[in-house]
């Protein structure tokens, strides 16, 4: 990313470096939760929150705690602890205030803690040497990009429930086929239309 303007960072996070369709990170909740649009929306909101907060907290931890103490080698462990803590917070809030959503997300909500998309985000923030604000913008954008793809995929999967599909490709094979088509659309569109 040569130009670090906030608009470019935002567009990169949503489209160019989309964590699901371009980087292929976070496929477990992508395939598991996109059977219904409501579940996809709930998971998207949770991922946006976790990605944004993880970007902010890991920047502070790395820059003001680990860096000054020459403990940079502990970054990965610290990032995992931060992400797991944030996911526990989100899980508690959803379980307390939105029980139907909590039930529909099932095991996939705690899996955000081990979601490679969230860890990939904080590592990309460090690799790109983003400032605090740039990291938060990239976190929000990556979460929005994740959410857009989740909702698109849930719409495709809900519609294909109305279509006759051969039994040999029902379920996960068809979901991967649809994901491939979405990925090709993202890659081809954003290569032709420069942002």
Describe this structure in words.
This protein is mainly α and 195 residues long. It has one domain. Helix content is 72%, strand content 0%. It contains eight helices and no strands. It has helices spanning 6-16, 27-33, 37-66, 75-97, 99-105, 116-127, 132-160, 172-192. Helix 3 packs antiparallel against helix 7 and helix 7 packs across helix 8. The N and C termini lie close together (12 Å). The relative contact order is 0.20. Its main location: membrane. Part of a membrane-bound complex that couples electron transfer with translocation of ions across the membrane. The Rnf complex is probably composed of eight subunits, including RnfA, RnfB, RnfC, RnfD, RnfE and RnfG. It is a multi-pass membrane protein. It is an enzyme of class 7 (translocase).
Brief summary of the model shown:
The chain crosses the membrane at residues 6-33, 45-67, 73-93, 105-124, 130-152, 172-190. The chain has 195 residues and is mainly α.
Largest sheet: none
SSE pattern, N- to C-terminal: HHHHHHHH
Strand content: under 5%
Shape: globular
Number of helices: 8
Average pLDDT: 87
Q: What value does the Rg take, in angstroms? A: 17 Å
Domain module tally = 1
Terminus-to-terminus distance: 12 Å
Indicate the percent of residues in helices.
over 70%
Unreliable runs: none
Q: What structural class do you assign from the helix and strand content?
A: mainly alpha
